[in-house]
User: What shape does this take?
Amino acid sequence: MSLSTAEVNKIAWLGRLAIDPDKIEAYARDLSGILDFVEQMSAVDTSAVEPMAHPQDLAQRLRPDAATEPNQRELFQAIAPLVEAGLYLVPKVIE
Amino acid sequence: MHNKTITELSQGLHAKQFSSLELTEHFLARIRQHNPSLNAFVTITEEQALAQAKAADAQIALGQTGPLTGVPIAQKDIFCAQGVRTSCGSKMLDNFISPYNATVVERFNQAGAVMLGKLNMDEFAMGSSNETSYYGPVKNPWDLGTVPGGSSGGSAAAVAARLAPGATGTDTGGSIRQPAAFCGITGIKPTYGRVSRWGMIAFASSLDQGGPMARSAEDCALMLQTMAGFDEKDSTSVDLPTPDYTSGLNDSLEGLRIGLPKEFFGEGLDADIARLINEAVAEYRKLGAEVKEITLPNMHLSAPAYYVVAPAECSSNLARFDGVRYGYRCQNPVDLKDLYTRSRGEGFGAEVQRRILIGTYVLSAGYYDAYYIKAQKIRRLISEDFKQAFQEVDVILGPTSPSVAFRFGEKSADPIAMYLSDIYTIAVNLAGLPGMSIPVGFSQNLPVGMQIIGDYFSESRLLNVAHRYQQVTDWHQQSPKNF
Assistant: This one.
């Protein structure tokens, strides 16, 4: 499995990563190597195997639908890059 | 004082041979002296440590104590500590002062332990050599030219150099066991769900598990006693009573059934390490254990399955770092897309980016079944192999890593070579089982670790198996020259 630089650019966008253009080729090489490595899995017939997503076969624990956490907006926003009037600021989205 | 184990320090504190303040000042002085050459600590929390030590001394004077009251420990910088920078080894979180405590940190606080500081690690716990840390690599105290292992390399180096009597680590694919092996200390990765993941920065949520790293199994038992237990804040925390991990340490190993998987002793294993593991197995025979060869036929597929599952979960978990609410934000973003992509492109290092890219790819439309579902099916096969094995044996022994600590730069240019350093540890995380590493000798003057794997929730048994070996050998008492 070999990834082209165009494919790496597409994945980088999906993962919201800005990558230096001069590093794309090295990433394409590394990622292709990793995909070749994991390709060993295809030698095994797993058609009758149930996928295992998690080590625990337990159902998700539920709790009563009640507020348990106090509002800590100021504490949490104290470490934000940019806030104003209790809101997180980002560049303008709607022109 | 720094040569004493946690158990001995606890006794000394309770007998008032020394105070927690004296002990804490002693370790802080050692950190100041040796950290410049080791780079094990990224933050030294001196002020808080001294305050905690004074509080512990007051508790001891009142007689209101537990085994860890006044004992200094250090936290891997993946555990959030309120008011303290929690960087996870990344530029992304270099400015992140945690507004809350991880449950593990909270539990040590409740137990009266003293936090000396935060320990260096591979960025977001992704690495096997500590070379991916934003703060530069940790050096192995046994040979400053070799890596300490990873990702809990700062924890392993700090304990080995006796800058802290015990430390926390986390293990997603071997990140407690492999550095413990490389630095000649003892570490245990508990069963998935045993230790709360609340406030432990997530890498791969179905694999991550925190655990203790110390100089002996007995010390690990004391630390695990504090760390383990149900936590309603972690939805995967297991609601089972925590056993007493120290009471069974001396249980007899007469009749213990040990399995040696033939896949652990094949091609790729250093011959000297194989010899040392066999010598350790011979000690167990003397202690009354029965040894038989077993097979884990899908073992060779664990690294390929892991390098699909772990990056997939990583790409999902690390989506939260967007430059908006906390962490690194790029300068002068022109629009929201630029803000997201540049904050992440500049804030994450190369290995983290590689894993986000692979994870994004294997989860994307058209590749999900071929990679992600396939890896989950292989994960089932590996888990079934262990299930089968534990019908025949009580514990599985084998090497922790195929080699001793390697040199800086030796594997960092080749991701696959680095990934293979964890070839014996990864399967344990995929299955969610507990695993340990204990020192069993030296090869090329560097420590060699042996892995002990048990069935689900058999931590007491693993600690017992490790402790009995440490009662008849002294590998765990060796310490590096110059420290």
